[in-house]
Every structure is written in C-alpha cells, then in structure tokens.
Write a structure and sequence with these properties.
This protein has helices at about 5-20, 70-75; strands spanning about 50, 70, 75-80, 85-90, 100-105, 110, 115-120, 125-130, 135, 140-145, 155-160, 170-185, 190-210, 210-220. The protein has about 230 residues and is mainly β.
C-alpha cells in the first residue's frame, strides 16, 4: 500500500471515529424553584390537599399513573423561621396497612430531590422520608412508604425539596459499543471493513427543587408463595 493511500485510509478512519465520539453539551446546574413571597401562606391548612391515586395491590407496581410536575403543583408555605418553602400536600385515604410507591423521574438530567413528611390529621409531623432513602433505578429514583397499624393517624404527605440534597449531582457511567462499517475506494478496487469503538458515557443528574414524580397507594398485602 502506498504512503498516500495509507494516509487517506487513516484520515477516513479518523473521521469515522470523530463522528462516533461527538456529543452535545448538557445541563450544568440544578434547577431552583422560583417563589413569589407574596403568594406564601402561613398555615398549611390553607393548602388544598390532592388525594393520592390508589390501585389494587396486584396492580400497584404495574399501573401507570400520570406524573405530577412539582413546579405546577407546589404552594409556598412560610416555615416556623419565616423562610418560604415550596411544598405539595397529598391526602392519604383507604385502609391500613398501606403501601405508597413514589417515583422521582429523571428528565433532561434533572431530578426532583424530594423529602416526604408524614403528618397526622392535625398537621403534626410523624416522620420524614429524606431523599437519601430513595434508590436510583435506571432513569428514576424510587421509594416506598409502608403505613402500618400503628400509623393509622397519618393523613397527609408533604413533598418538598430536600435541602440536604438539592444542588448535588449523581453520576453514573455506562459503556457503549459500536461497530462502524467503512468503504474506501482504492486503485483497482474498493476496500471494505469496519471499526469497533467503545465509548464510556458519563451521565450526570442534577438534584433539583423541581421535577416530575408519580405516587400511588395500595392496600399492603405481603406476597405469599402458592401452596401446592
């Protein structure tokens, strides 16, 4: 093979590799909730509660629930220290024990870093599920709340940004393999071949004050093995 032909071949292969490795710029910071202080309320009882969607126990993990957009649903509540806090209020209903499944979606490298407060009928806090308790699975963070017989007094769930997690990032790495064919004319014929490339893709998720999530409740029934 001549020097000129070899140079042309390497140039063509370099172009193919460059095309395979190209990529676009992504999100570079967490999204914050824009709050109008004039819209804040001082009493959570002034916030309208949204009923939690329910499903039959056997279908709870498969049912598709239309997601909520926290930014659209949220109201501003003045905390005890006077700071405005964006929050969304949900109302539990139905029998206990109950299982409540929550999914925080990742969209365009943004995920809602939610903390969930459980309140009784007098809006007193029973316990909190921080964002750290959610588990990353694919393109979402999932978490489950179990309300047992001792928590029959739980009436409300408050979704709010988790100050300990907002602004952080979650990074995942995945390998992508490609085989790119090439056809190069050469004197007296055509050269065929392919190039195998491997690209390590780093995906960064910004934990934010806004984002999409779904929630569904069902009566809790422990799975039992079928007896023969």
């Amino acid at each position: 093979m001549s020097v000129l032909l070899r140079a042309a071949l390497f140039a063509s292969i370099g172009t193919l590799l460059g095309a395979c490795a190209s990529g676009g710029a992504g999100i570079t910071e967490a999204r914050r909730m824009q709050i109008d202080p004039a819209s804040c309320v001082s009493d959570i009882a002034q916030v309208k509660a949204v009923p939690i969607p329910r499903a039959a126990p056997a279908k709870a993990k498969k049912v598709e629930i239309a997601p909520f957009e926290f930014e659209d649903l949220a109201r501003c509540l003045l905390a005890a220290d006077g700071k405005p806090v964006p929050m969304a209020l949900f109302e539990t209903h139905g029998p206990v024990p109950a299982e409540i499944r929550i999914v925080l979606m990742v969209n365009s490298s943004i995920a809602f870093a939610a903390a969930v407060d459980l309140l009784d009928s007098q809006y007193q806090q029973v316990r909190t599920m921080p964002f750290a308790d959610f588990v990353r699975r694919g393109s979402s963070y999932t978490g489950t709340l179990f309300l047992n017989e001792r928590e029959q007094d739980v009436r409300y769930l408050v979704f709010r940004p988790d100050a300990d997690s907002v602004g952080s990032t979650h990074t995942t790495t995945s390998g992508i393999g490609n085989r790119t064919p090439y056809v190069i004319p050469i004197p007296g014929g055509i050269m065929y071949g392919s190039i195998s490339t491997g690209v390590e893709q780093v995906l960064k998720t910004w934990l934010s004050e806004v984002g999409s999530f779904s929630i569904v409740a069902s009566e809790y029934r422990p799975e039992q093995l079928d007896e023969e």
